[in-house]
Design brief:
Helix 2 packs antiparallel against helix 6. It is globular and about 55 Å long. The termini are far apart. By secondary structure, it is α+β, with helices and mostly antiparallel strands. A hairpin with a 5-residue loop joins strand 3 and strand 4. Helices cover about 40% and strands about 15% of the residues. It has a single domain, classed as NADH Oxidase (3-Layer(aba) Sandwich). The chain contains 8 helices and 6 strands, in the order H-H-E-H-H-H-E-E-E-H-E-H-E-H. The longest helix is centred in the middle third of the chain and has 22 residues.
Length: about 230
């Protein structure tokens, strides 16, 4: 929680700087790409347990992300309780059935066909951990005074990217899930109205023989996603 007395500018030396020669930077960037291109969204999970410390450290990494005014407008709820996961699945599938029964529209449903998704979400119960990401519209100082958060969607998006990378780095697979609406998560998880649930991330180990859709391996080439101005 922020304290008002902490909110003053003070310059400190840049900590923890890693300096590399150019050749090493090129190699490090390529190595990271090679590792991250092995990340896949997996829908078939094993029930193999994952230590709580792994999830905590991955979320600690997410919490180190940059954010607007350094307000860190996020909160993560990590769930391993089978009863709570079952309730989340039931509520999510209720929303998903409405989505697939026509709420999504024909164009969106056609776009999802190559991915092979449907209203059934067994991974929400099978995966050992669910991580619900909340975006905080505003925060409070230590004296209870309310303050506005800035660039909330952008900040939470960056933090979630850190989290997905950390989970992969830890040897886990993950799947992002965004039932709409998701307000049931506030009541279920005891989070305040100032927070908006934006994503459920299932995290764990893949089931033996887990499959991924072939189309998910198709990524745009660099010349389609990059413009260089020198």
């Amino acid at each position: 929680m922020f304290a008002r007395k902490q909110l003053k500018y003070e310059a400190v030396d840049l900590p923890d700087r890693v300096s590399m020669p150019d050749e090493e930077m090129v190699r490090a960037a390529a190595d990271f790409h090679d590792r991250m291109k092995q990340r896949h969204s997996v829908r078939e999970f094993s029930d193999r347990s994952v230590p709580r410390a792994v999830i905590e450290n991955c979320i600690r990494t997410a919490g180190s992300a940059p954010s607007g005014a350094n307000h860190q407008p996020w909160h993560f709820v990590a769930i391993s309780n089978s009863g709570v996961k079952s309730r989340i699945r039931a509520a999510a599938e209720e929303e998903e059935r409405s989505f697939y029964d026509g709420a999504a529209g024909d164009e969106w449903l056609r776009a999802l066909e190559p991915i092979g998704t449907g209203p059934e979400k067994p991974h929400l119960e099978i995966a050992p951990w669910l991580i619900v990401v909340f975006a905080q519209r505003y925060g409070r100082f230590d004296d209870g005074t309310r303050f506005k958060n800035y660039y909330v969607p952008e900040s939470v998006g960056i933090s979630t990217g850190f989290l997905l990378a950390a989970l992969h780095h830890a040897g886990l697979v993950s799947l992002t899930h965004t039932p709409n609406p998701m307000r049931f998560l506030n009541a279920l998880l005891g989070r305040p109205d100032s927070e908006k649930p934006v994503m459920i991330i299932a995290a764990g180990h893949p089931a033996p023989g887990a499959k991924v859709p072939a189309v998910a391996k198709i990524k745009k080439p660099l010349d389609e996603i990059l413009t260089v101005v020198e």
